[in-house]
Amino acid sequence: MRRPGPSAARPASARRAGSPVAATILTAILTAGLWTQEVVDTFAFGGQLDAFGIQPRDPDSLAHVFSAPFLHAGFAHLMANTVPLAVLTFMSAVRGIGRFLVATLLIVLVGGGLVWLFGRGNSIHLGASALVFGYLAYLLGVGWWERTPAALGMAAVAFLLYGGALWGVLPGNPVISWEAHLFGFVAGLLAAALLHRRRPVLPGTSWQR
């Protein structure tokens, strides 16, 4: 019989936890990248990079699902997203860097794809608010699926900080992409379900996911 090592003695949730330092670095890179992009777009391209946002049902715009969440219609738009994005990015990444990156890809791909399919036509959808709503949903979903004290606590903090923003998934201001909010949120829930849902333990095994 093999004696379990020190890492095996730790709870599975502890072994999967990410590093706060790594989460901080990743958050700083993402935030700095968004600001650098907006500075370059504004002063070098005159805002022309915003054309790489999502134009629903335009075949030439389908690939823009990968660029739209990282573009903003000016500095005011970017400033409105920066703080919630930084906070929710850190809270999501500290749960595990690998899973965070996969969750981000799902939010960008699924959320953006749904905006491309169902968003209002004759408009360009862009902005990190899709990620903000996606990460918020991801944290809430992790709390639901894992139901550990750490996951529930993180979900509660996220809801207390930004739960009021959930009204943003409903149609309102015509210049705001509520579709990106809604579908980013849906994609975040999907990511949590795929990455954190408990699976049944097979007969004869003593480990749990």
Describe this structure in words.
- The protein is mainly α and 209 residues long.
- The chain has a single domain (15-196), classed as Rhomboid-like (Rhomboid-like fold), CATH 1.20.1540.10.
- The chain is built from 8 helices and no strands.
- Helix 6 (129-146) packs parallel to helix 8.
- The protein is globular, with a radius of gyration of 19 Å.
- The chain starts with 5 loop residues before the first helix and ends in a 13-residue tail after the last helix.
- It is found in: Membrane.
- Keywords: Membrane, Transmembrane, Transmembrane helix.
- InterPro entries: Peptidase_S54_rhomboid_dom, Rhomboid-like_sf.
- It comes from Deinococcus deserti (strain DSM 17065 / CIP 109153 / LMG 22923 / VCD115).
Secondary-structure blueprint:
Blueprint: H1 6-9, H2 12-16, H3 20-44, H4 75-93, H5 97-118, H6 129-146, H7 149-162, H8 178-196
How many individual domains?
1
Helix content: 55-70%
Task: Detail the poorly predicted runs.
Answer: 1-15, 205-209
Question: Which superfamily, in CATH terms, is the homologous superfamily?
Answer: Rhomboid-like
Radius of gyration: 19 Å
Secondary-structure element sequence?
HHHHHHHH
Number of strands: 0
Distance between the termini: 21 Å
Q: CATH topology, what is it called? A: Rhomboid-like fold
* Strand residues, percent: under 5%
